[in-house]
Each structure stands twice: as C-alpha cells, then as structure tokens.
Amino acid sequence: xxxxxxxxxxxxARIRCVQLAPVVGDLAGNRNLILxxxxxxxxxxxxxxxxxxxxxxxxxxxSKREASSVAVTAEHxxxxxxxxxxxxxTAIVVVGFCERGExxxxxxxxxxxxxxxxxxxxxxxxxxxxxxxxxxxxxxPAPIVDTPHGRMGVLICYDLEFPEMPRxxxxxxxxxxxVPTNWPLGTTPAGEHxxxxxxxxxxARSNGVFIACCDRAGTERDVAWTEGTxxxxxxxxxxxxxxxxxxxxxADIFPALARDKAISARNDLMADRRPLLYSRLQSSPTEx
Amino acid sequence: xxxxxxxxxxxxARIRCVQLAPVVGDLAGNRNLILxxxxxxxxxxxxxxxxxxxxxxxxxxxSKREASSVAVTAEHxxxxxxxxxxxxxTAIVVVGFCERGExxxxxxxxxxxxxxxxxxxxxxxxxxxxxxxxxxxxxxPAPIVDTPHGRMGVLICYDLEFPEMPRxxxxxxxxxxxVPTNWPLGTTPAGEHxxxxxxxxxxARSNGVFIACCDRAGTERDVAWTEGTxxxxxxxxxxxxxxxxxxxxxADIFPALARDKAISARNDLMADRRPLLYSRLQSSPTEx
Lengths: 288, 288
Prior knowledge:
2 copies of one chain form a homodimer. With 288 residues, the first copy, chain A, is an alpha/beta fold.
C-alpha cells in the first residue's frame, strides 16, 4: 500500500523528552526552564524535543483567575525566543501552555515550534478533572505536522487514553506522536508499568507508530506526578525512560519505519481494519 | 448516566479460562478435552468458562481440505453435549470451533453455550496470517450475550488488537469480554508482558470492562504459543494467569462494576468521548 509520505525522506531522528518541574503561575521562571531545556537539546543534536503539558504555566491552578493570569497566545515572546534558539537547525519543539482565546476563553494547548516560528497549536480535546473548571475543550482534530524528521502527530495527556485519537493520527499518516502530559500519580500494582504507560505502549503497537510522552516532575500544591516520561517504538516497546533521579529520555528512531504497517506475510495493521464494522464509534453509549 | 442493564442483576461471577492443548484435526479427542474442562469447571462452580480459539479443531491446518474435515455447524452434537453438561446450572461456555457455512465456506468461530443450547455464534472478523487461506471473515459485529452473569461480549484473538472492537462492545454495554485466542509465540523484551497481554490490559482499562483471554498450550506443527491466558479487571490490572505448568486462570469478578465508567469526580470513560472528532475511524488509511 502506498502511504502518505513526508516532504523530506527522513533518516534517523533524535527524540528527547525532558521531564521539567514547572512552578504554577511562574511564567518567567518556567520560560527559563523551557529555554534551558531547548539549549541543552540543541547541544545534544536533538531533532524533536517534547516538553510537558502546561510547562509554561504550571498545572494545579486554584482558580480560573490564576489560570488566566498565565494565559498567553501563540504570539507571546516565549515562542519567538524558542524559535530564536532553534535558528540554523531543523529541530522541532513541542511544549504545553495555557492559551488565551477570544473573550478570555482558555485552552490547554501545545505549540509546535521550529526556527521559523510556531507551526501549529493543538487545543486538548479531552479534559481531565479540574481542567474542566478552567479550560474549554478544543474542537479541532489533533494535528499532524510534516517536519524534516517525519510526520508528527500531537496529543495532550488524557487524549491518549481514547484509542480513537492515536488511531486517527495513524490513519492520517503520523509516523510518531508527541504527547505532552501531566500524569497525576496513581496506584500501580507491583511489577507493572503505570497504567498511562501501558496505554501508550498499546497505542504505539496497535497503530505501528512511535510515541514520546513527556510527563512532568515535582509536587505542585500536594499533587504528585507519575514521572512516567517514556519513548516507545512502533512495536510498543520502551526505548527509553528517565532512570533514578534523571529527567531525560532520549532515543534515536527511524520515523519512516512507521510507514510499513505489515506485521505478517498477510497482515497489515491498517489494511486489516474493517471500517464498516466500526460504525458504533461514531455514537454515544447506549442509553437504557 | 443510565447504562444498559442486564436482565438479571448480577452479583459475583466466577470466570475461568482453561488453556487447552488441542490436536489439529482430532475432533473426537478435542471434544474430550473440552468436555473434561466443562466438567471440572462445573465442579468448581464456574459461571463463565472460556476455552481457546479453534479448540474443537486445532489451529495449524496444512490445507483448506484439512480444515474442512473438522468443520462443523452449531448443530453438531459437540454443542449439545456441552449444553447437557451444563444442565441445572446457569453456567456459560465460550469455545472456538471451525464452522462450516453454506457452500463449504469456513469461519473461525466461537460458540456461546448454556444449558439451553447455543446462544450465539461469532465469526472472527479480523483474520490472522494463514487463517486467510482457509477462512472467510465474518461480516457481523461482535455479539453481546445477556447472561445471568452479566453482559458478555465475544471477540476472537486478533480482533482484540483493533481498539475499535472492544470499544464497540463497551459502547453497547458489555460488562466483560471473552476472548478465545491462539497467540503464536512472539518476542518479548525481558520484564515485559507479552504484547497481546499489554493490548488486552489497555483495552480493559480504556473501556472499563473485564477481559478474559484464553490462549492455547502445546506445540502444533512447530508453532509454539504464548500461553498468555489472562483475566484482567476493569482497571486493566491482571487478576489471574496460569502459573508454572498450570493451564487454568480463575477470578471472581463483579461484572456490574463495569457499568460505572466514572474515573474521577468529573470524568467518565464513555461520556468524555468526542465522537464528532472520530469520523476518521470510518475510513481507510490515507492514500498518497
């Protein structure tokens, strides 16, 4: 099967996630954390740097007023500063921020930035818990950005727990999916990966795509985080996670491998789908 | 949200999977294995017994002629014999068989049987590898059977690797999903579960349903099996797997717990879906 191809025939791509510990409400301090991570990634010849959800603003807002106080648009100098850091490189940065829309509507968004500036903004479509108090859910499908390092889809945190989301991106030809997250710490049985990582592994394998989830670190207003940052290959296996007190996961991947969906002599993850049998997915649950 | 409810308000249900080692082509011998497992389950007061894919026929056929030689219909005495064993119980058996349709068309099917006889037959809709040489894929959605032990969905093996399938069953109100499987042995990194189990855990968690996968044992014509039989709770965690040389997994579950899809004060696995954003799932991959 002929698949969607990137504008550039990609070779190896170095993917990095940095599990920052932003401070809620501290736009200036978080900007320094973000720019520091960008500079270090540039020195390490990283092609795609993924940073956490709401890295620019922090997460555990006490009120919509507080969230609004750190809400910015894609025209904010933070993004121009990141673009400036990327000058003369082909690198891409994905970073979460609190986005101000019209009439003080707020979105939990992620920006995709290159040396040329902001390439795309995705507004999270599945909001988690208290986010519903502050944010309006996005109404547009998750984007695919055609980068020099492959076709990159973007999801944010809870989005990934809806199998429809990575599936849609894979059907549209994503090679890898960048997922800024803030995973509140849950309970995990001994010997198991955190549930969010299991869902990410399954999403990667069932769609044949690479996935890079960048969680956050630190404790914010008594909320602790899973610190589950992980880079996963197209078969669903873990390529890298931060170890010990580390905060960085890095992996060199070949994004174009995700374009081969064959998994046996006679099977193809996408061609084997039976869309006519999936009509149920367009509707809401059965009401009795 | 008001959810579909079972005809009977279910309490605890004892689910068992028995990882049989059927012999290809030996309908009489496999019948004895199956009836033995049914009798033992009855003695153990099992409510729902799940047996492997193609347990009645074996799996690694050398030709369509061989598959046809062990193909039966739902009227075959094997199913009446199982029903007879279940007399005066409310137990349910799910077992895979090679089904003969009209004009010698063959299906990789699973029968759902109670004391009253065959309640449903599901024809596998996603065929794996050489199955495509022998079987015709089913054209009907996977069924939900309203049993005294909860609303049971049925999938077969590779079906479960398509997130659309468990999702559709959950949307239609399944409490648990019985999955007869034959998982050919693959490569698993040290410390990880087999990939099929990771996919099953993710399917259970993202849909809030219990899942019972019954794999097979033994080596058949040089094909070895994962022996990955597993019963998983509605949060995606493993309740039981066969240990050592064992072949049995058993768990007492409360199927009705799957009807509560709330996962936080403000989140519900089903109500949080955004079906209008999932239209991509109805179509085939992008062609370039």
